[in-house]
Specification:
Layout (H helix, E strand, L loop, with lengths): L1 E3 H7 E2 L4 H10 L3 E6 L2 H4 L3 E10 L7 E6 L4 E6 L9 E5 L4 E2 L4 E2 L3 E3 L2 E3 L2 E2 L29 H4 L6 E5 L10 H10 L4 E2 L18 E4 L10 E7 L9 H9 L7 H13 L4 E4 L7 E5 L5 E3 L5 E3 L5 E4 L4 E4 L3 E2 L12 E7 L2 H11 L4 H6 L8 H13 L6
Parallel strand pairs: 15-18
Antiparallel strand pairs: 1-13, 2-14, 3-13, 4-5, 4-7, 5-6, 7-12, 8-9, 10-11, 16-24, 17-24, 18-21, 19-20, 21-22, 22-23
Length: 393
Amino acid sequence: MKFTLSWLRDHLETSASVEELADKLSSIGLEVESVDDPARKLGAFTIARVLDAKQHPNADRLRVCQVDTGSGVVEVVCGAPNAKTGMIGVFAPTGTYIPGTGITLEAKPVRGVVSNGMLVSERELELSDDHEGIIELPAKLGEQLGKRYADVMGLADPVFEVKLTPNRPDCTGVRGIARDLAAAGLGKLKAEKKVSGVDGDFECPVDIKLEFPKEARDACPCFAGRYLKGVKNGPAPAWMQQRLKAVGLRPINALVDVTNYISMDRGRPLHVYDADKLKGAIRARLGKKGETFAGLDGKTHEVDETMCVIADGSAVLGFGGILGGEETGCTEATTNVLIECAYFDPLRTAATGRKAGVQSDARYRFERGVDPAFILPGLDLATSWSRDPGPAG
């Protein structure tokens, strides 16, 4: 289980240091496996402005840039296609270690022109795989020249990783960990924020059914859903993407990212369907031998009669509590959605996951047992954030 310090402080009022938090977590049974402070490797990188970018006299694909670092102007040779006059970028001075390439910068000639530092890409900072060009920041950040990039962008946020024993499902979300620390005397748990304005004025057009034989009703005893019309999907807010990246999750789009964020934040997995792709009622049932579906992991999965699946009127859509399917996945073109918030039996979830060879964040939580009292509140929270995630905290 990973979380950042700022994320923890969304739920916990505390002045404790990183070291004090790590010691307390381990002492209460939440063993800290690592604490990673990204500011250490990004400390030398600063906000800078390209005052001038001209063609290199001896190379067609290089530019010679005059870069205002906030403490002076230096000449930098840059091969990025997006290097241009006036842009705000990220500067690394001579002597800086570049984590993405493993090199330490030296002031040396590049085709006859000395480069006194470097303008860097996200891949060179190990922030993403993007290396098509150097980082281009919003123009307003030109007011922050010379300041550390990690501080300005909120990247100076230590990441904790704790090892959870199977009997601690309450700590598969950041709020649960905050609650434990508060109980241990290392701060005060913040009150839950009230969620309002999520009640609709129309009936859900998608019927929801539980279709289990008597002996298997515990496979999914509760399935709640809410239909949202006219949503606008696109990138999630930068703060949400940043936190998801920090804990190892790849941002996809706002609708999917909200469900992933709530899973990490509250230990409550959810799933969101493109409602216009559903055919008839959506139902939780046991699978049938021979059924298959294309999973969001890019693989085709076989189903059998021991597995809890989610299906519509034409096909299986995914493994309940483990993995959704490509067929009804949300894209930026999605406008109508059905949000799922359900409870799946831990034992059947674990058995299905092992048999299918699928390990997911949802399975990790459901096989330990999620809070059954947070089904409707979780649905309300997902509804609210799907409309507007708002600022962090």
